[in-house]
């Protein structure tokens, strides 16, 4: 094999390897642990995480604290972000719920706005889908802060 052909083959292998999804992205999760989810959150650029217990951790997204809960024996994940000191109204929260998908908002017992998002792992989801959920949480927290003031 000539050197030029060998180099072309090497470039082709490198391009294909870079284009292939990672093994983690291809792995199917029907259950997830706190540590697995924390690792994915870190991989998405949120390096500062604080563990609460074996099923809960928090991180900051767009400057707002977000708690992640591992529920139903690891078969679902919930993201929760509450804010204090706002002038949020039931009308602004209802507007959010009417206009947005994949999340729900409410006014808690203290009169503060809360945003929650859930991911069900029943039947299995890929690592890429879980990372997409993390991105959706980040974007939703940011939009919620600007729209429900």
Describe this structure in words.
This protein is of the alpha+beta class. The protein has a single domain, classed as Yope Regulator, Chain: A (2-Layer Sandwich), CATH 3.30.1460. It is built from five helices and eight strands. It has helices spanning 3-19, 23-26, 34-43, 90-99, 127-147; strands spanning 28-29, 49-53, 56-61, 64-71, 76-82, 104-107, 113-120, 125-126. The chain has a six-stranded antiparallel beta sheet. The chain has a two-stranded antiparallel sheet with strand order 1-8. The radius of gyration is 20 Å and the shape is globular. The model has no long low-confidence stretch (mean pLDDT 88).
Features:
149 residues; alpha+beta; Yope Regulator, Chain: A; six-stranded antiparallel β-sheet
CATH class: Alpha Beta
Q: What low-confidence regions span 5 or more consecutive residues with pLDDT below 50?
A: none
User: What's the domain count?
Assistant: 1
Taken from the alpha-carbon principal axes, the silhouette is globular
CATH topology: Yope Regulator, Chain: A
Q: What's the count of strands?
A: 8
| Distance separating the two termini | 66 Å
Radius of gyration (CA) equals: 20 Å
- Order of helical and strand elements: HHEHEEEEHEEEH
**Level of helix content?**
40-55%
Proper CATH architecture? 2-Layer Sandwich
SS-derived structural category: alpha+beta
How are the strands of the largest sheet arranged? 2-3-4-5-7-6
Overall pLDDT metric: 88
Report the sheet with the most strands, covering strand number, pairing sense and barrel closure.
6 strands, antiparallel
Number of helices: 5
Strand content: 25-35%
